Amino acid sequence: MQLKRYLDLYALLQQDRSSRQERRAFGLSDAARGKEAADQLRAWTEAHQSLLPRPLLSEQVEGVLYHATLLLGIAALLLGIVTAAGLLSYSGKEPVNLVYFLAVAVLLPLVTMLLSLIAMFRANRSRNFLIHISPAYWLTRIIGFFDRKGSLTFHTVPLNPLILNWIIIRRSQLLALLFAIGMLLALLGVVATRDIAFAWSTTLQIDAAQFHAFVETLAFPWKAWLPSAVPSLPLVEQSHYFRLGGELSDTMVSHAAMLGAWWKFLAMATFVYAILLRFGMYLLAGWGLSRAIRRSMPAIDGADVLLRDMNEPLVTTHPDEKSLSSDMTQESFYQRTDTKLTPSYDAIVGWATPEETLLSLCDSFSVAASKCMEAGGSRTLEEDRHTLEALGGTVLLFVKAWEPPTMEFADFLEAVAKHVSKAVVVPVGTPKEGYAANARHKAVWERKLASLDYPNVWMLR
Amino acid sequence: MSPADYPRFAVVGHPNKGKSSIVASLAMDDAIAISDTPGTTTQKARYPLKVDGETLYELIDTPGFQRARGVLAWLKAHETDASRRHEAVHAFVNTHKEDARFHDEIELLEPIMEGAGIIYVVDGSKPYGEEYEAEMEILRWTGQPSMALINRIDEADYTQEWKQALSGYFQMIRTYDPMHATLSQHLKILESMAQLREEWTAQVKNSIALFERYHAMMRERSAAAIAKLLYRALSHVERLVLKEGEEAEEAKKRLTSRYKQRLRSFEVETQKRIEYIWNHQHLKKQQENLRLEGLDLFSKESASVFGLTRKELLVTGASSGAVTGAGIDLAFAGHTFFAGGIIGAVVGGVGAYLAFNELADIEVLGKKIGRRTLQMGPMQNRNFPYILLGRALFHTMHVAQLSHAVRQSVNFEMDENFRQQWLTDARRKQLEKYHKQFRQAKKTDEKVLIEYEALILEILDGLLAS
Predict the structure, then answer these.
(1) Are residues A345 and A288 in the same domain?
(2) Which contiguous run of DSSP H or E holds residue B292?
(3) Is the peptide bond before B378 cis (omega within 30 degrees of 0)?
(4) Cβ A448–B53 below 8 Å, yes or no?
(5) What is chain B's mean pLDDT, rounded?
(6) CATH for B3-196?
(7) Most buried residue, A6, A17, A418, B211, by CB count within 10 Å?
């Protein structure tokens, strides 16, 4: 997984306006279905990359990283050349002590590789001392310093520390690799252009046999196929140098050609320990970075929701088109209202009210009429017509306040309005409420009467 | 998919008896027009339950009966045979398609005659009336499977009266309160709907399983949103570049205000996200930004309702400090005679106690470079995470339990005992471990956030189950 994908996803999620439907549709497509989270995110990023503004954030960041790495890489290469040249500097008076060279070409790489391995194991920690001592860490600090003017948003990109650690580890391996290549080039250059007498010298009580055993161990990887690059015991014996002598001994001078044979061993040691192993570390760091990017992608802000949207079934219960309902809750005041009833009317009609209840209502409201009739309810329309024909004068019309006025009632009221001089609609409550209608129900009736607006129809408020 | 491939249910009844409320509740759609004015629904509206575009069943909201007796009179006049009543209803629908007088009846009968099951809604808080007979009779004539839902809109109870009246007309009678229905009540209604016709059973039962999963998904998403809110708020760092000649004290006030505002905006964003998760995008609140009865996030009242007491804070600070101190003891293999743990506990406890009202440290950056920047955060107040978390849980719990049929403004009533419902000593210790990490402001490992999210989900599940 590349850093580019991570940064593109980050940039996409910053501006993403996709709907749940789109995300789920993508989740069900072949590009994403059944895949791991990181692969799904990568597929999403690839599919939506065209939406990103140019230049891409990933290109900017990678561009800066590339240039900074190139600069430091050249510096590392030159440093390697200079270091090796320094270590191999030969005055002609004293032989070149190959122990120094081995320390830089073998020991130093092995130690730093061990530290790198420890850093890899601890890469998950945001505060990692080993990361902070790496030159590549300082590389990112330098980038940040030069980018303070804000021309690039590199240091504002919230890179997961895990990724940042692996970027540093990987780039450290690259710089070390270039340093080693520089050393090897310098070694080959110096050997080709100058005549160098190699020797080994140490204060430690090590004799030639022990030193031979040591170099033979070091030469183990190429011993079988390049025996000429493995120093022999006589060579080791011949090249043992004691500074106390002041100058080269006669024996050494007589074996000058032999002493130069060390270069093959040094070149192979540099190649195997400083270059080949380091290259392996570089590949390992690349794999680690790729894994870190895979692990970190779902942690980008918004990626968790995107993944859920892609993978969880999209349940909708909404209509494709919203209902064409009209909101009729507007206030409406009916002008023709009575606040009290008169004791007698020409007729009293109970809408959808059985006779027994109608009589109770008359008692309860202390009203009387020569005709008490039913309408609506379980009666037929024909029966309602007979009721209408019997109406005239002033009519009191009891209605159940809690039952909203239907068009059937509106039809009846229209007919009543034509037959009588005045009709008073009285919304009543339930028997449990003592027939007193509540204000909310009365308001419904009031609005209905206002919409019908018959001039001789009144309402008891 | 042709319409006959999935079950459909027409929700019908007298005007203003809560049909739309029931559809809104069952469809979990808070956008359906609901009002106490009869005739709000003038056209049928279909609410399909779709999973990845595939319809499992469909609810159809319909206008109420307006001229039921007129329809019944026509049907009776055109009845040829008692066994062919279904055809008479068909004939009525075909004959009156363009008749404005029977517009509402056509709207409600059409889907039934196309094969929809009937869900007949009545108000159980009002007495049964004889005017319902015509409606029920028409529905019986359609010959479609039917169930009656008794919806008690008000307090009074006429359920028994209704059950008696309805039993002669409907296969099944159930009670359902769309305003307060829980998930299990919702699912029970779906189970009843599944029994209406044998060939519908499998599909409707599938949707029951799906609804359960859907609900779990919503809880998980809410927990994730809350976990992220806590992480963002606790680790947030606000910076302010000092203007030339600006007094540091003045700038500190400005920075504190900006810091608080940012944290408030995180909370509001999360609340909106949670309302979206639970399909409550249209939720009307008394105050848009100062939700929760106008209790500001940083108010003393909020701290007293949702936060820890000074005593709890002392214990939390002490235990947190003791853990750090114990680390020192461990490093010295106990040669410190556990003084590290003791000192840590005392310092942590006293610090938390004294900093009861302090939010975060303010640092001045870049003094040497010349451009002075003030920095506030991450949050150091030990009490704040509990206030924020309490408020988020409270809001989520109410949104999750809020019926989609509610249309009036919502004002979540404060419960003084809410904290006791979820914040035990053991829970506080668990939470503090994560809050401590969030306060360190460094990017937290994804695993830690996932663990925290799981903890929040556990708390939320507990609250919703109680």
Answers:
(1) no
(2) helix B291-294
(3) yes
(4) no
(5) 83
(6) 3.40.50.300
(7) A6
